Write a sequence for this structure.
């Protein structure tokens, strides 16, 4: 896959960085390159742009990250069952444009695509955390605020990450993507310590909601190749969107998955229903006014998010759970951003402790 860029901005303090050199040597010919004393100015919304968030996706800023790289997953809270996922922020925003994406709200004031030249500092943070948690397996992912592999052809960061984690016990790196951008990964031995996960959607959702992403068949083909190269694989059916015919479409998607990847080789499958804050819902409908999938049977839930009507949501998620369990009861699975009560109704038991779930995923 390739993504068009309107501009590359290099922060002055990062001119001599290895990342800047890689990006500039691999960028498509003709992309303008500018320099800024402080690239935080360059990632703000473009004045006068009809779609500031969409325009931001086409501007790449190579810059220094001022905040810590490691953070708790925003989905984890006292309200929801937590999977123990830690977020490693190496980039911000995504060149793809899914109509349901929470970044439309979360990054509205800083929509420019940011990639951090001082990412070696993230390795120091990982090492300190690893040493503070002897005997634990820490599941760390880069796919929360940016697709893990979308610009990997330019940045090459994945190779450094995989090599770092391959040399250290107690770390399980998760690279989460909707691309088939795996060439760099195929040149590195992960030693069983990197998991690549794909968000999967039926063709109807892909065509209607997931602009500039790889087709579901291409994602599955990439997963097959990654598995053969020694990586672990996992899959996210999230968000599961309710629409007429959705249950049949999602069950067919699971059949395609199990036909491509043997259930015993899948580290986990996560499920999550569609949810949007009022601000995200407004932004998504404004930017994607022709998308009927954003106009389902939703109600404002106690957590302040619009969610699919509970009986409809539970019924759909339960149908997927039954199909997964029939394929292999041993597949680790969990619900993302759902309260324990929904977890019990869909999976039939209370959520597993975060540490136990992380260990189970690492062990498969």
């Amino acid at each position: 896959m390739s993504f068009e860029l309107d501009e590359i901005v290099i922060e002055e303090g990062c001119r001599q960085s290895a990342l800047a050199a890689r990006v500039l040597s691999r960028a498509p010919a003709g992309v303008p390159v500018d320099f800024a004393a402080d690239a935080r100015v360059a990632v703000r919304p473009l004045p006068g742009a009809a779609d500031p968030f969409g325009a931001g996706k086409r501007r790449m800023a190579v810059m220094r990250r001022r905040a810590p790289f490691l953070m708790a997953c925003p989905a984890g809270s006292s309200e929801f069952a937590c999977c123990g996922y830690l977020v490693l922020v190496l980039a911000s925003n995504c060149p793809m444009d899914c109509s349901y994406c929470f970044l439309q709200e979360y990054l509205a004031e800083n929509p420019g695509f940011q990639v951090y030249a001082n990412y070696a500092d993230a390795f120091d943070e990982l090492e300190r955390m690893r040493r503070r948690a002897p005997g634990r397996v820490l599941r760390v992912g880069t796919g929360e605020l940016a697709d893990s592999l979308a610009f990997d052809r330019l940045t090459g960061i994945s190779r450094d990450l995989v090599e770092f984690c391959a040399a250290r016990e107690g770390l399980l790196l998760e690279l989460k993507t909707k691309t088939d951008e795996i060439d760099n990964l195929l040149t590195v031995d992960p030693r069983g310590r990197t998991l690549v996960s794909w968000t999967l959607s039926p063709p109807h959702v892909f065509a209607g909601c997931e602009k500039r992403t790889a087709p579901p068949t291409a994602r599955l083909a990439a997963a097959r190749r990654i598995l053969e190269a020694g990586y672990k694989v996992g899959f996210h059916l999230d968000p599961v969107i309710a629409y007429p015919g959705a249950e049949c479409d999602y069950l067919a998607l699971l059949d395609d998955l199990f036909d491509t990847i043997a259930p015993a080789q899948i580290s986990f499958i996560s499920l999550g229903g569609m949810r949007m804050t009022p601000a995200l819902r407004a932004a998504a409908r404004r930017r994607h006014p022709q998308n009927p999938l954003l106009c389902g049977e939703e109600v404002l839930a106690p957590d302040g998010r619009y969610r699919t009507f509970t009986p409809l949501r539970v019924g759909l998620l339960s149908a997927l759970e039954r199909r997964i369990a029939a394929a292999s009861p041993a597949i680790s699975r969990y619900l993302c951003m759902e309260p324990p009560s929904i977890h019990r109704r869909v999976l039939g038991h209370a959520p597993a402790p975060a540490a136990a779930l992380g260990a189970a995923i690492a062990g498969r």
User: Anything to note?
Assistant: The chain has one domain: 70-363. The radius of gyration is 20 Å.
